[in-house]
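Key idea: predict the complex, not the pieces.
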Amino acid sequence: MPEILRWHAQLSGAGVRATRKRVQVLEVLIAEPRPITARQLHAELLNRGEPIGLTTVYRAVSSLVDAGLVHAFTQAGEATYRVCGPTRHHHLICRSCGLVLEQTAEPRTDGFEVEAVYGVCAPCARRALPEQQRDQPHRPRP
Amino acid sequence: MPEILRWHAQLSGAGVRATRKRVQVLEVLIAEPRPITARQLHAELLNRGEPIGLTTVYRAVSSLVDAGLVHAFTQAGEATYRVCGPTRHHHLICRSCGLVLEQTAEPRTDGFEVEAVYGVCAPCARRALPEQQRDQPHRPRP
DNA sequence: CGCAGCTTGACAATGGTTTTCGTTTTCTAC
DNA sequence: GTAGAAAACGAAAACCATTGTCAAGCTGCG
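Result:
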């Protein structure tokens, strides 16, 4: 199924009209390789010459999340958004660089239905603390 | 090593004094089986007849997180806190009931250093959607 | 056309968290 | 013990992401 048809199917399936503003928000999200905040979305749309209100951006991403086209993350205490595929999956999110990987394998650790895994990706882990103590528990990196 | 000595060792190791207020905050956290918010911590301390300011609670949990005694989570958009063990580990957090499991095994999915895994625990998963469609991608449960 | 209902956006309100700043407590040196 | 310095404390204000309000605009349908 072509992407654009899938969008409309998923939107209407969730009772959400594919309005101009919502599609514009979705287009920005599709172009972004990693999760961005509502304010960044808003700024990017204004950059593109598309007048839109911040309130509308918040409502659009909310609709898109409800429709299953977009996934919401929490990074540094604020919500970020990114498009995600239609099949069941979970995400690996690097707390340091913001990289997101979609994983289709089902880990089911201890019976958990895993939705999001936060951690530090291999390149960021190598970059940080290359020679310092490594066995400290959960010291947040600056 | 007795718990109380470990606290002091970890606190002083992070350059944090084991003051009366911080110890009281830590005691409440130790008694709580799952993560609680700063406001809940504050209310519980007032309940116990310990006068403390909300600002101090925020600063105390921040110090305790820095010292590695407490781990911070994000649930429903606000920060929650819970004591955690001294050894390297990660957490499984149920988005539905707030249950937290400490895991010491290293999953290292795709080279990630896993810190926190958000999902739905088995009892909550059984309770929700027992017969409805199960293969929807990431539809947030109400 | 004309209505009903969804959508939009400026503005206000909310609420968790942090900053400010003056006061109090704690630690260290004597 | 006492003094002085540094850290901790707390009330109030500031901050800021997010949500609510409400009037105006748009869309589809009879």
